[in-house]
Amino acid sequence: MGQRSVRWGILATGGIAAAFAADLVDLPDAEIVAVASRRRESAEAFAERFGVTRAYGDWESLAADPDIDVVYVATPHAAHRAAAGLCLTAGRNVLCEKAFTLNAHEAGELVALAKEHDRFLMEAMWMYCNPLVRRLKSLVDDGAIGEVRTVQADFGLAGPFPAAHRLRDPELGGGSLLDLGVYPVSFAQLLLGEPDAVAASAVLSAEGVDLQTGALLSWESGALASLHCSIAGGTGTTASVTGSLGRIDIPAGFFHPERFVLHRDGRDPEEFTADPADGPRTSLRHEAAEVMRALRAGERESPLVPLDGSLAVMRTLDAIRERIGVRYPGEAVTAAAAAR
């Protein structure tokens, strides 16, 4: 691909699509060439807002556009399998929002399609691409706090959300787990890998989605992760990693941190802060830049957000949903989730 601009297509026009497009506009060598929505009016309004020349009123036209290097799929996660699958089959590279899909089976289908069509695929887990999170992982991997013993993380929104809201709609994969809980789970697995056992409990809504969920993940090493997500109460969105030789604390907004503090036995606390040159802490530019780097290098997945890791997170989310009894319309219980 060389160093020419990477040409993006945006599939869907909601809030996260707008945030991503706004960051792409400010990223050198990135160009948004097309946007698609199932409602042409939405696509045209989005295109006008961001100076995009092509607005499609269907997904198929975007997927078939040969001038697009990569498609950013920003639909609700219930539609990720269909949207990303359509684009991969049409020969487009794909960056797909998280949670990657509704379940691990659908995620596996997308990975298989990417391999079949020799296309790049990545989950938009922007936390993994955040420079300060990468620094934290490097410290943990290098033994700064010894062997990891516990991980704690939470993500809750105050609400209340009405029954008609997407976060409470089973048809859209509603509930706190897939929308918010994916962050604590992904954070724990970034540091410890896929757990060996999963326990969970939840409070469900009248519609059958989880209003709040608590999960305890465990590893044969003896490590534990205590995780919580909620759409019924605003939490501190903090995280902490404790090891045999110290601890790392991340204050509010652990998934896009401004700073974290390293406590090591026998030493003064060390504070690590985000570099202002990296842009606002809410910026999605780092994941976009990683996609562009990988495409130019001819890679089919990112080492920062590997597909095996995304599949492992989806298996854990499946196992948690199995424990709490959340099923989405048309979903079958997977033997793998039931056995975990």
What's the rounded overall pLDDT mean? 95
Helix content: 25-40%
Profile the largest sheet: 8 strands, mixed
Helix and strand content put the structural class at alpha/beta
Poorly predicted segments: 333-340
Strand order of the largest sheet: 8-9-10-7-11-12-13-14
Shape: globular
* β-sheet strand percentage: 15-25%
How far the N terminus sits from the C terminus, by CA atoms, comes to 42 Å
Instruction: Specify Rg, calculated over alpha carbons.
Output: 20 Å
What string, H for helix and E for strand, traces the elements in order? EHEHEHEHEHEHHEHEEEEEEEHHH
The total count of strands amounts to 14
Number of helices: 11
Description:
This protein has 340 residues and is α/β, with parallel strands linked by helices. Helices cover 35% and strands 24% of the residues. The protein has helices at residues 15-25, 40-50, 59-64, 80-89, 104-116, 126-129, 131-141, 176-192, 285-296, 307-324, 335-339, and strands at residues 6-11, 30-36, 54-56, 70-73, 93-96, 121-123, 148-156, 197-204, 210-218, 224-230, 239-243, 246-250, 259-264, 270-273. The strands form 2 sheets. Strands 8-9-10-7-11-12-13-14 form an 8-stranded mixed β-sheet, with helices on one face. The chain has a 6-stranded parallel β-sheet with strand order 3-2-1-4-5-6, sandwiched between helices. It starts with 5 loop residues before the first strand and ends with a helix.
